[in-house]
Amino acid sequence: MSERKTIIQIEHLSKSFGDLKAVDDLSFNVKEGELFAFLGVNGAGKSTTISIMCGQQTKDSGKVFIGGKDLDESTEGIKRELGVVFQNSVLDKALSVRDNLRYRAALYGITGAVFEKRLAELAELLDFADLMKRTVGKLSGGQRRRIDIARALLHSPEILILDEPTTGLDPQTRKLLWGAVSRLRKEQNMTVFLTTHYMEEAADADYVIILDSGRIVAEGTPLQLKNKYTGDFITLYGATEDEARLLGTSPEKIPGAYRIEVEDTAHATELIIKHPEIFRDYEITKGKMDDIFLAATGKRLTGGENGERA
Amino acid sequence: MKELKALIKRDTKLFFKDKGMFFTSLITPVILLVLYATFLANIYKDSFTGAIPAALPADDALIDGCVGGQLFSSLLAVCCVTVAFCSNMLMVQDKVNGSRNDLTITPVKSWTLAMGYYLSTLIATLLICYAAMGVCFIYIGIIGWYITAADVLFIMLDIFLLSLFGTALSSIINLFLSTQGQISAVGTVVSAGYGFICGAYMPISQFSEGLQKVLSFLPGTYGTSLLRNHALRGVFEEMGNEGFPAEVVEAIKDSIDCNLYFFDDKVEIGTMYVILGVTVVVLIGVYVVINGLKKER
Fold first, then answer.
1. SS3 assignment, position B176
2. Contact between A107 and B99 using a beta-carbon 8 Å cutoff
3. Domains: count for chain A
4. What gap in Å lies between CA A101 and CA A98, rounded to an integer?
5. Is the pLDDT of residue B284 over 70?
6. Which of A55, A199, A286, B46 is least surrounded by Cβ atoms within 10 Å, i.e. has the fewest?
7. Which of B126-140, B144-158, B167-181, B248-262 is least confident?
8. Cross-chain CB nearest to B98 (options A82, A86, A95)
9. Rounded to 10 degrees, what is the CA torsion of B18, B21, B24, B26?
10. CATH number at residue A199
């Protein structure tokens, strides 16, 4: 398989607000077609980085290249490559879905029959054909989120930036959104740049960066991060506490089972061979993204709120 | 051009759909109407009747036309600025609710966005003010019509210029606002205060001399005077026809700000147009320059 080309290249990016270093010498690359997860507690520098990439804030130093274009020289060109779904819906609540999308599309030069065609495609992809005449302010959270995503996709961007897109959504809508995103990635090779508080969403990413105080504290594929920052976990079902303790570690009691952290899969295998009588019903799993985040930052990522020092 | 057209449509539609913004913009003219309907009209009528020498003939229609013209010009002078301020609050609301970010991530240039707000505000202001003008003409027609077709055209021009002025002024001020509290504060101050400083609630001639001098530096004052001159020109002409001495007519003009003085020099109507026109050009220029420079740091 050929090496995917780099579509976002950030080099030594820095941005301060007074004495506060919001982004501190940040460098990373995003490959074309990748689902890229950008994690960090509020104030870690995620939104500032995104604002700089979108040309909404100036940077103090560093370089940003998107789709091969230098942000310093081609801000407008870069804006055509990006579709952004903001944390909160930013559509006009007093206008209908159709009007919202029509006026936003015109800002990219998309009008008339071209707009109608694109609107029909997006309505089919995100299942909102029946909402066209509804006022955005009267839509449910999930419905509104679908329109937000449609708005971001109006101009068929190369890169879709999702800034905590599923916060507060019901599981069904989250599933619908991720289905649409998967389809876009598969059919159009769209690059997705994601910030999220839902760790299971980050677990599906191709590459993850964890930010803390404007700096990268961990990066890699989810597997690399799991191997580096967490061990494996053995979940023993139907075992007694004494049996769990025989494995030589402090077992954690969970409903109907004990959870034991081991160094790696090889160590788990050794334990199975050594104590086969205990392993009547069990699971061996990798560490979770929450564990990685905690190990890398010393903080827990809590849904939408500031991270807490663990 | 497509982009600008879409922005103007969006902004105008939002203003008329936002009942809060729309009705707030009408508060000042409504206050003025209530003041006139309850007591101001009678006070003006009594003061006119008292000021005119008993020997001079002055029928009720002429007096009513004079009072009505004052109401008409005051109402429109205030409307052009307060409606512009309220309509232009969309610019701040877009910042408050985040819509501004959604507009600035598009490839649209900042001056296009700025002109979108400016032109949509101007359109909304003109629509409301010309509608108000129509209502005022009906009222004047009922109580005493002394207006010619040329006066109507000049009044329309005055409304246009004052709306350009109000829109440009509000555009500059609103550029520096970013919270709901600031919107409310500025809206209240403008709605309550502008009527006084432009001479709409009370003629400037009735203020102290020092205050008159200060107000003579404000371009809006000349806008009010232009409207008043054109709304009352026919009334004054009729007074002359009915034998009012020129000195009496001039005294009335002085008392209701048809004649304005910059220190001791009378400001001619042509000069008032120049002042208002130059102010509009300067304000629009300042707006475009600030908007270009004001990139978020």
1. coil
2. no
3. 2
4. 5
5. yes
6. B46
7. B248-262
8. A86
9. -80
10. 3.40.50.300
Residues of A numbered 5-24 whose beta carbons fall under 8 angstroms of chain B's beta carbons: which are they? none
Interface of A with B in 129-168 (CB under 8 A): 151
CB A78 within 8 A of CB A9: no
- Nearest CA to CA, how far is B90 from chain A (Å)? 11
Specify the residue for token string 């509020």. A42
Q: Which of A220, A235, A264 is the last residue of a domain?
A: A220
Which of A220, A253, A279 corresponds to the end of one domain? A220
Question: Mean pLDDT score of chain A, rounded to an integer?
Answer: 86
Q: Measured between alpha carbons, how far is B34 from A71 in angstroms, rounded to an integer?
A: 57
Q: Which of B2, B18, B99 lies nearest to residue A111, judging by beta carbons? A: B2
How large is the average pLDDT for residues A266-292?
Answer: 85
CB distance A56–B296 less than 8 Å? yes
* Residue A310 placed within a domain: no
Out of A57, A77, A84, closest to residue B296 by CB: A57
Per-residue pLDDT at A306: 40
Q: Which two tokens stand for residue A304?
A: 């939408």
pLDDT tier for residue A89 given thresholds of 50, 70 and 90? confident
ipTM for the whole predicted complex goes beyond 0.95: no
A187 with A244, same domain: the answer is no
pLDDT reported for residue A305? 37
Do A216 and A247 sit in the same domain of this protein? no
Average pLDDT, chain B: 86
Contact A230, A244 (CB under 8 A): no
- Domain range for A290: 226-297
Q: How confident is the model at residue A147 (pLDDT cuts 50, 70, 90)?
A: very high
* Contact between A58 and B297 using a beta-carbon 8 Å cutoff: yes
Within a domain: residue A286? yes
Question: Domain holding A240: CATH number?
Answer: 3.30.70
Tell me chain B's radius of gyration from C-alpha atoms: 20
Q: For residue B10, which residues of chain A lie inside 8 Å, CB to CB?
A: 92, 95, 99, 103
